[in-house]
Amino acid sequence: MNQVTGCFITFEGGEGAGKSTQINRLANLLRRRGHDVLVTREPGGSQGAEAVRHVLLDGQAEEFGVRMEAILFAAARNDHVEQIIRPALEEGTVVLCDRFMDSTRVYQGVTGNLEPAFTENLERVAVHGVVPDITIIIDVPAKTGLERARKRGSKDSSGPDRFEKEEIVTHEKRREAFRELCQSEPDRCKLVDGMAKEDTVALTILELVEAILPELPSTGAKSGKR
């Protein structure tokens, strides 16, 4: 009997790239096709990780330095993986996650200037063998993304978070780091033009996902109620 395994799809990009919109579109489409889909996010996604999320995004950990911030991200990620992601994948679920290990590589590693050995060891412990089958990196100019993010924040009265407040040059450096990931890991990381029309972006993402998505069991489709 073959082991049932799901598909782990992560979405990355700078602030205001449109990840949430595209994740929801893909989730709805896959559910209509009969897939069991779980939508989650980082930092957060599990009870323990959500508690850490507020500390990180409110900037409460910033005063302790980027190294401590990276450790907190790793702790939250490990809880998320073990409590939510791994069990879902073992049930054959398609997991769509808004940010994962690549955000730490870029935000704390590249623009936080942490040494690669440190971030690599943190990542290894945090993910514990759970690596995305595909990572969709939605690419938009930093200025455009920040304008979108700040407009969104003004609508929901949340205001800019700890990372949205940073200088434009930092956001541009992150954009380039995400683009470089697509060059260094082309089999996993796929760059998508976030400046295209929303429908075009959605179609591009769907085509990428269809190429790696496991077939549904012939005995019948799942309900996809998550």
Write up what this structure looks like.
This protein is α/β, with parallel strands linked by helices and 226 residues long. The protein has helices spanning 19-32, 47-57, 66-90, 101-110, 116-127, 142-156, 168-184, 198-210, and strands spanning 7-12, 37-41, 94-98, 134-139, 189-193. It is built from eight helices and five strands. A five-stranded parallel beta sheet has the order 2-3-1-4-5, with helices on both faces. The two termini are 26 Å apart.
Can you give keywords for this protein?
8 helices, alpha/beta, 5-stranded parallel sheet, 226 residues, disordered C terminus
Quick overview of this protein structure:
This protein has 226 residues and is α/β, with parallel strands linked by helices. 52% of the residues lie in helices and 12% in strands.
Helix fraction, binned, reads: 40-55%
- Give the structural class: alpha/beta
Give, in spatial order, the strands making up the sheet with the most strands.
2-3-1-4-5
Q: What's the total count of β strands? A: 5
Beta strand %: 5-15%
What is the helix/strand order?
EHEHHEHHEHHEH
Number of helices: 8
Task: Please identify the oligomeric state.
Answer: single chain
- Ends apart, CA distance between termini: 26 Å
Largest sheet: 5 strands, parallel
> pLDDT below 50 for ≥5 consecutive residues: which ranges?
218-225
Radius of gyration: 17 Å
pLDDT averaged over residues: 89
SSE topology sketch:
Layout: E1 7-12, H1 19-32, E2 37-41, H2 47-57, H3 66-90, E3 94-98, H4 101-110, H5 116-127, E4 134-139, H6 142-156, H7 168-184, E5 189-193, H8 198-210
Parallel strand pairs: 1-3, 1-4, 2-3, 4-5
